[in-house]
Specification:
- The protein has about 525 residues and is of the alpha+beta class.
- It is built from 17 helices and twelve strands.
- The strands form four sheets. Strands 2, 6, 7, 8, 9 and 10 form a six-stranded antiparallel beta sheet that branches. It has a two-stranded antiparallel sheet with strand order 1-3. It has a two-stranded antiparallel ribbon with strand order 4-5.
- A hairpin with a 2-residue loop joins β4 and β5.
């Protein structure tokens, strides 16, 4: 699908945009918006004054079939601020979905899209994507919030969506950031912004929890059927389709945790309502890529107990899957006699949940061997990896640069140790580990050059460090969006050397240590 950028006149352009988006809601197929009023509330976006484009992803636009240069059209910002939705009829208005969830381990009851509105779907090249405006104003699920997002958090989400995708990590995408001078009060007065998020689905664990908690088995089944039909049709052939769906969630969540842990990424708010049923990274708030390695790294200043610290993420994903499994229990075990169904359903769910560890552990071990350039599996590899993390933790060695610079080491001598060795204050501790690593490398058949190429394909040089995002944000507050564009371009090639952008791979400056992100981010 495409919108024509050649329409003359703003009113004509808005009309064409509106008509094109309205068509999304009548497209055939099992779309989430077709599930009905039990699942969502339709309403227009709140007006956003004098919107302007802050950031744009041409790659994401191409996924949707949008034509090159569309972001330069005068109606683009009006459309993706949500302003034109006020012209749409009620039956096709954007929608906010209802869900519930556990927040910081505590049942929070009904939640929902408090500041996000789904526009509908775009089908292109055989794929279908939902579009969602984050920051589009109050909804029935906003509780005490204003329904707005701020420029600061919107830029962070836009940049991290691009970064994660190009790191090969499952994620929602971001088409654009639309800004405005309209004031929004947080800890201080900031300005409003809207992110257009793109994903195959925004269904969360919390959607299932909501209907389970409200004893609405009919809606729970309709939701599960929607997910199966759209994304896991093979589950229909299983003896228990809903157990097969749970198994898919277990595997995709385990795989996602491997990806996060392998690049030092922390989500910050792994509530059940922030867990995607498709295993996507979703809801970028107080996230962070580690600089100096700390196993207990907490990226969310609001997380005083460290529930969502780096080392806890796999365990929390496992805990969240238990919540999902409980929510699916009313649907499980229909193949059993009624007298034993409940017990058998629990037994089956527990067995499937046990697959998380079976999936996660060997996958992480394989990933860490790849990060160390080890093709063959040997006894002691896990101990070698764990010792590296221990030395990194003790020295707060930079996570990204440590693994990137390991590729420079030689299996023959210490001539290439300098770049990585210099990241450790305790040089003797590093040298002791490096000697064992070199001995292990001597068992490999690849030469140093081939190993370095392979390692640089899995160990990124560029990640979205907090200070890089902060620099782009500070300039954007002054209406200079060039750094948003440049940083996004760098992050789209995280494994390339990019010598012209070496500064983006450097250790963070001293002032970066004072940066904090919280749930308001």
């Amino acid at each position: 699908m495409s919108f024509s950028p050649s329409i003359a006149g703003l009113s004509g352009l808005l009309s064409a945009f509106s008509e094109a988006l309205l068509a999304l809601f009548t497209s055939p197929g099992n779309a989430f918006a077709q599930l009905g009023s039990t699942f969502l509330t339709r309403l227009p976006a709140a007006p956003l004054s004098a919107p302007y484009t802050v950031g744009f992803s041409a790659e994401t636009a191409a996924l949707l079939g949008l034509e090159a240069g569309i972001q330069n059209d005068p109606g683009f910002a009006e459309l993706f601020s949500g302003n034109v939705t006020r012209e749409w009829p009620n039956r096709t208005l954007p929608y906010a979905s209802v869900y519930s969830g556990h927040q910081f381990g505590v049942w929070a009851g009904q939640l929902g899209d408090g500041r996000a509105l789904g526009l509908g779907e775009i089908a292109h090249n055989g794929e279908r994507y939902e579009l969602q405006l984050k920051g589009a104003g109050r909804t029935p699920y906003s509780r005490m919030g204003d329904g707005r997002a701020v420029l600061r958090s919107s830029i962070r989400e836009f940049l991290c969506s691009e970064a994660m995708y190009h790191l090969g990590i499952p994620t929602t995408r971001a088409l654009c950031v639309i800004g405005s001078d309209q004031p929004v009060r947080r800890e201080e007065v900031e300005t409003a912004a809207v992110v257009t998020r793109v994903a195959p689905s925004f269904v969360r664990f919390g959607h299932f929890e909501h209907f389970y908690a409200n004893d609405n088995t009919e809606a729970l089944r309709a939701l599960a059927d929607h997910v199966i039909e759209r994304f896991y049709p093979h589950c229909r052939d299983a003896e228990d389709p809903y157990l097969a769906l749970l198994n898919e969630a277990v595997f995709s969540s385990a795989d996602l945790m491997v990806e996060w842990q392998a690049v030092g990424f922390c989500h910050g708010v792994m509530n059940t309502d922030n867990m995607s049923i498709l295993g996507l990274t979703i809801d970028y708030g107080p996230f962070g890529f580690m600089d100096g390695f700390d196993a207990g790294y907490i990226c969310n200043h609001s997380d005083s107990q460290g529930r969502y610290s780096y080392k806890m993420q796999p365990q929390i994903a496992y805990w969240n899957l238990f919540c999902l499994a409980q929510s699916l229990l009313p649907l499980l075990g229909e193949q059993y006699e009624e007298s034993v169904r409940a017990d058998k359903a629990i037994e089956d769910a527990q067995r499937v949940l046990g697959g998380f560890k079976d999936r996660f552990v060997p996958a992480l071990e394989w990933r860490m061997r790849a990060k160390l350039g080890l093709e063959m599996e040997r006894d002691g590899d896990d101990a070698l990896v764990n010792r590296l993390f221990e030395v990194m933790h003790a020295n707060r060695a930079d996570f990204t640069l440590t693994f990137r610079n390991l590729a420079r080491m030689s299996k023959h001598d210490a001539s290439g140790d300098g770049p990585v060795r210099d990241l450790f204050l305790d040089r003797a501790a590093f040298d002791a580990w490096a000697n064992d690593y070199r001995a292990r490398l001597s068992e490999e058949t690849r030469d140093d050059a081939a190993r370095a190429i392979a390692m640089n394909r899995v160990n990124p040089k560029f990640v979205l460090r907090n200070h890089l995002a902060e620099t782009a944000i500070r300039r954007a507050k002054g209406k200079n969006f060039s750094e948003v564009e440049r940083l996004a371009a760098v992050l789209r090639h995280p494994f390339d050397e990019q010598p012209e952008n070496e500064a983006y791979a450097a250790l963070p400056p001293d002032w970066a240590s004072s940066l904090e992100v919280s749930c308001s981010s």
